[in-house]
Design goal:
Number of helices: 12
Structural class: alpha/beta
Number of strands: 8
CATH superfamily: Aldolase class I
Radius of gyration: 17 Å
Strand order of the largest sheet: 1-2-3-4-5-6-7-8
Oligomer: single chain
Strand content: 15-25%
Order of helices and strands: EHEHEHEHHEHHHEHHEHEH
CATH topology: TIM Barrel
Bound molecules: 2-phosphoglycolic acid
Length: 251
């Protein structure tokens, strides 16, 4: 089965509501008529509802930047997957390296978030990736395997069809250093192999694995040409409509 490429923009802690709405409108315009690709944008929580409203009727999917494992309750600062849906989001980034490394989220916590999102029909994008030290010590594949296996614990064969994985080497995020297309392909192939051990091979072949880490107009075409790279999770270059537009229209 052919995997439909997904280009995702992670706006992190940027943009006011007005700025987010105008960027979203431009992205909605440049995504019109795209049938062979999907486009996702993840604004800050304050702008979610306004952005969802702004892209209504376009193919753009709105996402949260995280999701709680609970649907409601005494969890100050958290946003539940039901609230994401209420605001118009259909997807959520989970386990981003900034959540793991700045806010100390563990694989177990990330796993709970994945299960919580799935239980509310919010599609999770599970982010995995090694640090520079881990790569230099030759631990990349061990780290990826653990993050994938622990992150997906309890996710059924039926649910895994919904899940998107994003491989984001920590050393490439926001640094301008991109993994080479060969390094990225090797990691993606490895992750697909791990998915094939956890689920049926047929399912592993259907799951989309995005690459993230300094994706820009200049490198997107090369990355997207690799057989196991099914899309991009874009930070910095997603904040300008012209660069994101070029990334969406990769060749
Ligand atoms: P970057 O961020 O494109 O700015 O490296 C990617 C990400 O954090 O998802």
């Amino acid at each position: 089965m052919k995997r439909k490429p997904l280009i995702a923009g992670n706006w992190k802690m940027h943009l006011t509501i007005d700025e987010a709405v105008s960027l979203a409108q431009e992205i909605a315009k440049s995504s019109q008529g795209l049938e062979d690709k999907e486009v996702m944008i993840a604004p800050a929580a304050t702008a979610l509802a306004a952005v969802a409203d702004a892209v209504k009727g376009s193919p753009v999917i709105v996402a949260g930047q995280n999701a709680s494992w609970e649907q409601q309750g005494a969890y100050t600062g958290e946003i539940s997957p039901l609230m994401l849906k209420d605001a118009g989001a259909g997807m959520a980034i989970i386990g981003h390296s900034e959540r793991r490394h700045i806010f100390g989220e563990s694989n177990a916590m990330i796993n709970q978030r994945i299960l919580g999102a799935l239980s509310c029909d919010v599609i999770p994008v599970l982010c995995v990736g090694e640090t520079l030290d881990e790569r230099e010590e030759g631990l990349t594949m061990n780290v990826l395997e653990l993050q994938v296996c622990e992150g997906l614990e309890g996710v059924s064969s039926l649910q895994i069809e919904q899940v998107v994985i994003a491989y984001e080497p920590v050393w490439a995020i926001g640094t301008g250093k991109t993994a080479s297309k060969e390094q990225a392909q090797e990691a993606h192939r490895f992750i697909r192999g791990v998915l094939g051990d956890l689920y049926e091979k047929r399912l592993a072949e259907q799951i989309r694995i995005l690459y993230g880490g300094s994706v820009k107009p200049e490198n997107v075409d090369d990355l997207m040409a690799m057989p196991d790279i099914d899309g991009a999770l874009v930070g910095g270059a997603a904040l300008q409509s012209d660069s994101f537009d070029r990334i969406i229209h990769f060749t």
